[in-house]
């Protein structure tokens, strides 16, 4: 991509309406703390999930949403760009300017289907389509249970195109004591795949032996 270099610290993060809002919030905090410029896309359903699961009511306008996030998060939001759902002039909407990495976290079955079929009906879908066509890194933290054949087919289709399908399925071998520990398990794996340094969870090794 034209505006991206190998060490480009710019990333697109989409929150869709799957359960798992705490994953999205924690991932955003970690990316900002790692000094990434984050383009944040929030679906209407994601706002409902955020209010339901996290008690965070985000206003619909991008500026007001950024203000609310600035109050809520524990890190600086100087490098946070909240984008409107149809902000087609956002850098993420074009291969000439988009970050080469994108994460959808959490990713609903609906967003999964739209991305698998190149719908590009809103900015998040378009941004994913751009990353696919530019052969960047796309990571979907899909959350649904059980998966239907349709979900599985959509995931397989994207996986064959190089997309990382990372179901929101935390492990228990690090003996989590709190919900935050479970959230950190998933976020640590996501950050690893993105190449972002993290020390959220002890790494697998001999120390884990009972
Ligand atoms: C509280 C809540 C939890 C939901 N959990 C899930 C879920 O885990 N997985 C999923 O695929 N959809 C879930 N949904 C339904 C999606 O939000 C819905 O299908 C929506 O249209 C997805 O749109 P989006 O992908 O544009 O955000 C949930 C909805 C709500 C309100």
Question: Could you explain the architecture of this structure?
Answer:
FMN binds at residues 17-19, 43, 108-111, 143. With 210 residues, the chain is an alpha/beta fold. The protein has a single domain (10-208), classed as 3-Layer(aba) Sandwich (Rossmann fold), CATH 3.40.50. Helices cover 39% and strands 15% of the residues. It has a 6-stranded parallel sheet with strand order 3-2-1-4-5-6, sandwiched between helices. Helix 6 links the parallel strand 5 (137-142) and strand 6. The radius of gyration is 16 Å and the shape is globular. Mean pLDDT is 95; it is low at 1-6. The structure holds flavin mononucleotide. Flavin mononucleotide (FMN) binds at residues 16-19, 43, 45-46, 48-49, 52, 108-111, 143-144.
């Amino acid at each position: 991509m034209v505006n991206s270099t190998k060490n480009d610290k710019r990333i697109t993060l989409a929150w869709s309406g799957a359960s798992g809002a705490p994953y999205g919030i924690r991932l955003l905090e970690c990316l900002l703390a790692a000094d990434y410029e984050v383009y944040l896309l929030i679906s209407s359903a994601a706002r409902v999930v955020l209010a339901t699961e996290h008690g965070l009511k985000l206003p619909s306008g991008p500026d007001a949403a950024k203000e609310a996030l600035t109050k809520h998060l524990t890190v600086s939001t100087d490098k946070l760009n909240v984008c409107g759902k149809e902000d087609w002039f956002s850098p993420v909407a074009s291969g000439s300017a988009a970050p080469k990495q994108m994460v959808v976290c959490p990713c609903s079955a609906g967003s999964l289907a739209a991305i698998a079929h190149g719908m590009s009906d809103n900015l998040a879908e378009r941004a994913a389509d751009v990353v696919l066509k530019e052969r960047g890194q796309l990571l979907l933290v899909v959350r649904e249970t059980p998966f239907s054949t349709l979900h599985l087919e959509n995931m397989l289709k994207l996986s064959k195109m190089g997309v990382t399908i990372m179901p929101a399925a935390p492990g228990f071998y690090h003996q989590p004591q709190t919900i935050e520990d479970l959230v950190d398990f998933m976020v640590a794996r996501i950050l690893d795949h993105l190449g972002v340094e993290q020390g959220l969870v002890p790494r697998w090794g001999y120390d884990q032996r009972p």
